[in-house]
Amino acid sequence: MNAIVLLVVGLTIMALGYFFYSKFIAEKIYRLDADFPTPAHTMRDGVDYVPTNKFVLWGHHFTSVAGAAPIVGPAIAVIWGWGPAFLWVVFGTVFFAGMHDFGALWASVRNKGQSMGMLSGSYIGRRGRNLFLVVIFLLLLMVNAAFAVVISNLLVSTPTSVIPVWGAIVVALLIGQAIYRFKMGLLWPSIIGVVVLYALIWLGSMYPIVLPETVLGMNANSTWIVLLFTYAGIASLLPVWVLLQPRDYINGLQLFIGLGILYAAVLIASPTIVAPAFNTAVPAGTPSIVPLLFVTIACGAISGFHGMVASGTTSKQLDKETDARFVGYFGAVGEGMLSLAAIICCTAGFATLVDWQTVYSSFGGGNVTAFVNGGEALITAGLGLPENLGSTLLATMAILFAATTMDTGLRLQRYVVQEAAELAGFKVGTILGTVIALAVCLALAFGAGSGGSGGMVIWPLFGTTNQLLAALTLAIITVILIRKGRNPWLTGIPMVFLMIMSVYALVVQLGTFYNDGKWLLLAMDIVILIAAVWVAFEAAVAMRQGREVRDGAADA
């Protein structure tokens, strides 16, 4: 089948979801109020709580949630065929991710910018909150430690990406000053910023940067990991308007343009999808499509991490409550568009079926490299760009997505540390909270694996943990809707589906970890499973009590 069909159908369904379904949610379910005073105004501090233009905030939210996962997940999952991956990404974006991200943002804004972890205490009880925070902390640990490895590997394998990736930080700092200190409008900083970013990509393709074999006794990968965590720690401490907001905004523009370039290449090259729609001859060792498809493709269909970003940083910057539809739901659509591009690159970016089967000869064989190589082939064929420039563009896209997720993730982990300390009865400051978050991530990175690769040790649990968190976030939103007397089914149905698939996947992985002797993963799997089931039970009780209170009030 021609890839154009997949592209047009996928984008059309997502567009219909945004223009019609999200409008229905905004008006009938969440009932947004433009006059509601958001935490960005009522709790404004110039550091975390800052009223923000919705386009700038969308850029922050979109690039924060769109890490490496929406590329890696589909790149792996097409081993079962492009059909299941396509259906889950497109319909998951419209009916699962959009509702989830939008809902988490709305719920937090309506509760003084509290994170989902803290909201769980208000709506499902103290025990549920404590267990919820455990799941959140483990998920953020996985994201931060693993993404550092992914980024470092790309910086080593694609040295032409080094200049644009690190140069983007300087561009972001200048844009932040232009918008907030010198009160410039968005137009010229946006145009100049994007032009400079693409000039840096061209410059990077001409002058690759390769680190020495050893720096202070560390290899290149380890050095990049230390530098990445140093940057993330500094970004976590700075006011959001100085670096985080402008970096995410300008990256969002650049990355959206990058998607446009990739989509234009598909339309011009008109490539054929060489992979099967449903692969009936999967390689030996490939797990069952159910439930693994629904946890392998997390970001891009639905992701619990999105709820953490929406309620952790985005809700504290929302200028008007009505902006939540654009920022939250359309942010999920942007993620879906990236995953759709990954599916096309990893199925139509190969010359023949044999070439595709060579890469997908084992489960996990397809990864970010398949996306970069497949996308490079499409861009070269469609737009005639030099191969080196195409690979630099896509590698930079992947790294910038992952890096913006990592710096937001570390900030969120600092919030969790501070919230946990507050619940324990003492106060942890911003600097100490950041140091603790960094120490835990670095301990995992360098303590559980050689050369800082420890983050990948617990990565197999990311998908299931992430989807469990999404289910638990939907559970909290459902409780809120029940208490408010609104239709809970639009969040309740996705919640039940995700809970079943995630618990099923955790149980399947228990057997795998036991048979392989992976005791750390086995222990973490058990902890996460117990916590998730316990929180789900507490949420079910809260839903029943909320319905009883509502019915009693109606009878009175």
Automatic annotation (TrEMBL):
Name of protein: Carbon starvation protein
Compartments it resides in: Cell membrane
Domain of life, per lineage: Bacteria
Lineage: Bacteria, Pseudomonadati, Pseudomonadota, Gammaproteobacteria, Lysobacterales
Alphabetically ordered keywords of this record: Cell membrane, Membrane, Transmembrane, Transmembrane helix
Pfam family, one: CstA
Stretches that traverse the bilayer: 6-26, 62-80, 86-109, 130-156, 162-180, 187-210, 222-244, 256-278, 284-305, 326-354, 424-446, 458-482, 489-507, 519-537
Organism this protein belongs to: Luteimonas terrae
Domain CstA N-terminal: 2-346, 358-505
Family: Belongs to the peptide transporter carbon starvation (CstA) (TC 2.A.114) family.
Topology with respect to the bilayer: Multi-pass membrane protein
